[in-house]
Design a protein that fits this description.
Structural class: alpha+beta
Strand content: 25-35%
Mean pLDDT: 87
Number of helices: 10
Number of strands: 37
Low-confidence stretches: 1-91, 726-734
Radius of gyration: 24 Å
Largest sheet: 11 strands, mixed
Bound molecules: MU-OXO-diiron, calcium ion
Distance between the termini: 30 Å
């Protein structure tokens, strides 16, 4: 057995066994190996007196990204102390010299032009590199996928391999620094990556199409495609390193791990064990197989991953058969299941991937409660490969886009999350207990108790966080809720009852590290027709309002929030629109939104009005901040919402005279959306996911062969971008 010495977050010496059948941290380190010599950790061998320094460094790293305003002020001294590093090595995406908000900008790159090319494009002076992509094996003894031989995906051997290979359609990306000394923390770490969904048309030779009824026959003829699909979902955790300017992932690292659509996941919190979460195979309602449609996510201050289950409904077929049965001859239980499904309806007839034909737990008619076990936030400890993932039910069940965390001044942890569907809501969760930065284990179940709130955006620019608490404000038996578990399982209906504001598809949420302001991306909504509408199982006003001012919002918008007292636990806030996305030359470029009636093609870039300097943008999705408060925005436009160009990554100052001056930094290959983005703690390296390159095409009619070229199937992949004064276009890594 090979073992790796590291230190846990309490500074105790730990040992990771490489015995994959029993991989977990334990307290009995003894064996070292040549691959993972302690000297790799740059001078902190086990038992070294530097251990406390490491522990402090790690705490600083995680808090630097997510800490509260109070913590921010506290750590200002540390940032100042690090100034010589920035002065010596200014190869950043931003210039520290211009960090003052009174100066024009801190962004230093020259924007690229929108593109339709099947290439990954970054600005002159920056280099992109493929880090890892679909089908690359994480362990020794399993080969990489050969995109010249996709027939393997129709076999059981293909499934076995995929369970150890990087999954499909990478989305959220989180860098967890290896807990070593100083700057090493930005060149070695664990990368956690979500795999949101599979694109059968670009994976399985002969796939008839996601809407073609003959996909049922295809799945019955090739049942391994169901196992393959489940194995390609979930999360990958891989160790990565930078050496001599090149990033690689460490094949065979004991930290490498796949969490898939079949991995046993614990259900924790108030809804664990509730009757709605029980199934024939899990009569206790406390453990579910798999996590699905993991879209965006978050990182906790104690260094765990939060991965969010978004469009889980698409995996469950025969919903209408179940509803018909429940309505005509169902007993009380069946009627209750139907009532609780109403706000997140499942697939009518055959589901998109048709898994229910092989794995009947995805048949909603046969197993009507299985879908209640999805739509949660899942916590995974990347540093402990043996730790079981946990679905944290206290954070509510809906189509979670993200789980963005911050530590409030009194120490409570706050988690912001959007429900990405037209006319759905924005939520936040506030823990009952406070974060303990000195004892990692004390935070282990912090997310199991707290208060979930839903947002109401008033037209006057004020806002309220409404508590989803059983027994309050009509969340009671008379209105369909028998306890707190039912409020959480049916969070959308609870939000309806409280009068939450239906939004234009809430996507990612990011918190400005320089001032605590919160930014929410609303990707698009073309259905504000001005009349009453039925959406997601309930009647809703489809009129515009101040927070959703376009009737046909093809291009999306971004809202900026300031919590009362700049305290994330506050129950009131102020909000304003930061950006109405689009092409500023397609309509009016508005200097102000005061009294403005907004046309569908009008744009607003926080008051910035140099029309020739603004990069056109559509369908904002994933967000991140750099250390100077510039907001980085990744886009996910489809046909009607893309402005005719490939999706990309953009950056915009949020303060100073350059506030609103949006510039395009990256353009993805054809058919892709760009996800992530994520920076290393030193902001020298940017990670971005290229999700579904070639979408819209098929294996027979491809529109992209990125990144392998030569007409091979495209592969969703993670790229790293950094400044080197070299090539301006993407290059393959060897
Ligand atoms: Fe999976 Fe909301 O994007
Ligand atoms: Ca997303
Ligand atoms: Ca997306």
């Amino acid at each position: 057995m090979l073992c790796l010495f590291i230190y846990d977050l309490e500074g105790q010496k730990l040992n990771v066994s490489t015995d994959r059948a029993n991989m977990k941290f334990d307290q009995h380190p003894k064996i070292n190996d040549t691959t993972y010599s302690p000297s790799d950790d740059e001078g902190i061998p086990p038992g070294s007196p530097q251990r406390p320094a490491y522990a402090e460094a790690f705490a600083d790293i995680v808090e630097r990204r997510f800490a509260s305003r109070r913590s921010f002020l506290k750590r200002t001294a540390a940032v100042a102390a690090a100034a010589p590093l920035f002065s010596v090595a200014p190869s950043l995406f931003v210039s520290r010299a211009n960090a003052s908000p009174t100066l024009q900008t801190t962004l230093t790159f020259s924007p690229i032009s929108p593109s339709t090319a099947d290439e990954l494009i970054v600005p002159e002076g920056y280099r992109s590199q493929l880090l890892i992509g679909w089908g690359e094996s994480l362990i020794q003894g399993v080969p990489n996928l050969d995109t010249n031989d996709l027939g393997i995906l129709l076999t059981h051997e293909g499934v076995r391999r995929q369970e150890h290979q990087f999954g499909y359609n990478c989305d959220f990306t989180a860098f967890f620094p290896f807990p070593t000394s100083s700057m090493r923390t930005s060149i070695r770490g664990l990368l956690a990556v979500n795999h949101e969904f599979t694109t059968s048309a670009l994976m399985f030779p002969g796939w008839p199409g996601d809407k073609n009824p003959s996909r049922a026959q295809f799945v019955q003829d090739h049942p391994p495609v169901v196992g393959l699909g489940k194995a390609a979902h979930g999360v990958s955790i891989v160790e990565i390193r930078q050496s001599n300017g090149t990033w690689t992932f460490v094949k065979g690292s004991p930290f490498n791990r796949r969490v898939t659509g079949s991995t046993p996941v614990l259900i924790t919190g108030p809804a664990a064990g509730h009757a709605l979460l029980r199934t024939a195979s899990d009569p206790q309602g406390r453990q579910v197989l798999g996590t699905l449609n993991n879209c965006a996510g978050g990182k906790t201050p104690w260094g765990t991953l939060l991965t969010c289950e978004e469009n889980f409904d698409q995996y469950f077929g025969n919903y209408e058969s179940f509803v018909a049965r429940a309505e005509t001859r169902g007993g009380d239980s069946m009627k209750k299941y139907a009532a609780f499904h109403r706000r997140i309806p499942l697939s009518k007839g055959l589901s998109r991937c048709a898994w229910e034909l092989v794995d009947e737990r995805f048949d909603a008619d046969k197993h009507p409660t299985e879908a209640f076990r999805f739509g949660w936030v899942v916590e995974v400890d990347p540093y402990d490969p043996g730790a079981q993932p946990k679905k944290r039910t206290a954070l509510g069940r809906f189509k979670h886009e993200c789980a963005t965390t911050v530590v409030a001044p009194r120490g409570n942890v706050v988690v912001y999350s959007g429900d990405d569907t037209r006319f759905e809501y924005v939520y936040k969760f506030v823990t009952d207990s406070i974060y303990d930065p000195t004892d990692r284990r004390a935070n282990r179940d912090l997310l199991d108790s707290g208060t979930l709130y839903v947002a109401k955006f008033n037209d006057d620019g004020s806002g309220e966080w409404l508590p989803l608490v059983y027994g309050q404000n009509g969340l009671d038996k008379a209105h369909g809720f028998e306890n707190q578990a039912e409020v959480l399982i049916n969070a959308r209906a609870a939000g309806d009852r409280l009068g939450a504001t239906p939004m234009d598809r809430p996507e990612d949420i990011a918190i400005n590290p320089t001032n605590g302001k919160i930014y929410i991306a609303f990707t698009n909504n073309t259905q504000r027709t001005g009349t009453q509408s039925t959406a997601q199982g309930r009647d809703v006003s489809a009129d515009i309002d101040a927070a959703n001012p376009r009737r046909q919002n093809n291009t999306g918008h971004i809202i900026e929030i300031i919590e009362a007292g700049n305290d994330p636990t506050a129950t009131t806030f102020q909000w304003e629109i930061f950006m109405l996305c689009g092409d500023p030359k397609a309509g009016r470029l508005l200097a102000s939104l005061d009294d403005a009636e907004v046309g569908n093609h009008d744009t607003y870039f926080a008051g910035f009005t140099d029309i020739n300097a603004i990069s056109p943008i559509s369908a904002p999705d994933n967000l991140a901040f750099d250390q100077h408060g510039n907001l980085w925005i990744a886009t996910d436009g489809k046909k009607e919402t893309s402005l005719g160009f490939n999706n990309g990554l953009y950056a915009v100052p949020t303060q100073g005279s350059d506030r609103g001056h949006l510039r395009q930094f990256l353009s993805g290959p054809r058919g892709s959306e760009v996800c992530g983005p994520e920076f290393t703690p030193d902001f020298q390296t940017l990670f971005a996911c290229i999700q579904h390159p070639g979408e819209g095409g098929s294996l027979r009619k491809p529109i992209s062969d990125w990144p392998d070229r030569d007409g091979r199937a495209p592969r969703p992949s993670v790229v790293v971008v950094y400044k080197n004064g070299g090539k301006s276009k993407g290059s393959r890594h060897n």
